[in-house]
């Protein structure tokens, strides 16, 4: 096959054509430019050395060549130089340039454009040629050795000319990142522009991180080559207080699967503490995504080694070995047991994860807020039946097996649930354990909170209100929840249910439903709010007055408040004080949660000493022979940090 006839538009004094000629890539090259001085200079420079290459004085907006004359049109930065803005005259000039390029190219020929891919430049080129029915591919050029000179990556647009098909033929748009061995198809010009922008931001970030320590933690996602979905989430944490040596400048920490939501790994403060205790100047934490498959620690290390070095700190010695760290030296275990979509909560998963040691936990995660555990229970290790012999220990290294399925109902995983149960110590009366206890819980989740109250307060009758019927099915099938004579679930909006009870209380023909305890543990679906629990309507004054109406005079209203907005939080507390004369608060260490205990009468006020004594009495009453009790759960400890507002 003959070498392609190549046209270089806006050649300037670039050496690109000369280099292509000299290495034998192609010799039949025509270069055009509108500068007479440039053309004369390049003609003199090539002269007789390159007889088959020509330089012509010509305007690319109005070329003299016949139609379909070239197989390749090459543009090195000319489009970038022309398309400096989006004024009407500029866009008209670019349209003319593209039309002429299209005219002189053969069908099957390619327009190759070397560009820095500013968003408006890329968008214009992609939209024009894709609408003409051409195949559009954007290649990211391999990084230059001299990154100090070229911070932004260079791209080549490869536009392949096809005959335009009448009607709405599907567009073919692809991006070919430098780290991949095949192109990735995208669905729209906007998505293609966004993909290029992501790579530009990443290049700028790497450049910045290689020059100076980062004052704030930097986070980024590395995506799967096939699906384009996030595969790794990285956080770059610098510790200025660490005394640096050759061996402690940089390390990578792999967070075990399923543990990315823990305080140490899932919060900025936690990662800062982790980096400091690890003793490295820069620590990159790596979270693994549940939708992905990983081939152990060695596989992850091989996959990430090249990429994480782009995030290395300034001053890292050449060829420095960078350690990969983890908890226990493995990547943990995560088993997705169930996945579904709720009309109200969206897509969710139930997954079993391995914690510290040999413990397994089952979690409910709403994927719209995947870093928050909605519900969690501990799983029991299976015990052999009477007369059944235990298996001999295999001397071989054990493999990861399926986690146990039985639920440990004696263990409250969530610290805020422990505090909420401890709040029942505030109930009035001479006995720490009332003869009868009416409890209303708004928000079921996995059912751990109402189930614990039901199981350990044998005199309690528990009513649960849950707006999402899917959650009742999840709690029953996967979290050991069940209904009975003392436990009933009502599928209803908590706002409507409480309002109905309060209205019945004002009707003389009915007996008002009154509760010893009302507990709110309900999340907000609006993630744009500074308060994720409860929804704002649950803490408005008219509704709180309805809550007070259904509460006994000596009862307690327990609220799980998760609010990052300081002003909004102060407003909520002020409203609560207007309705409830007695207000206690208990902060959950290492979390945003704050548990509020609200009482309708100031006469029930108890100081910390009284609370501690009452908590010890209640715990003694709850600890019955034959009933397991988690030794780490001490009610008095839960109430030590309680403050009266």
UniProtKB/TrEMBL annotation:
Signal peptide: none annotated. InterPro entries: Lys/N-term_MeTrsfase_sf (IPR051419), Methyltranfer_dom (IPR025714), SAM-dependent_MTases_sf (IPR029063). Residues 388-398 have a biased composition (Basic residues). The keyword Methyltransferase applies. Transmembrane segments: none annotated. GO terms for cellular component: cytoplasm. The keyword Ribonucleoprotein does not apply. Residues 383-404 are annotated as: Disordered. CDD domains: AdoMet_MTases (cd02440). Residues 5-125 form the Methyltransferase domain. It comes from the Eukaryota. One of its GO terms (biological process) is methylation. Keywords: Methyltransferase, Multifunctional enzyme, Transferase. GO terms for molecular function: methyltransferase activity. Belongs to the methyltransferase superfamily. PANTHER family: EEF1A LYSINE AND N-TERMINAL METHYLTRANSFERASE (PTHR12176:SF78), SAM-DEPENDENT METHYLTRANSFERASE SUPERFAMILY PROTEIN (PTHR12176). This is eEF1A lysine and N-terminal methyltransferase. It comes from Cochlearius cochlearius (Boat-billed heron). The lineage of its organism: Eukaryota, Metazoa, Chordata, Craniata, Vertebrata.
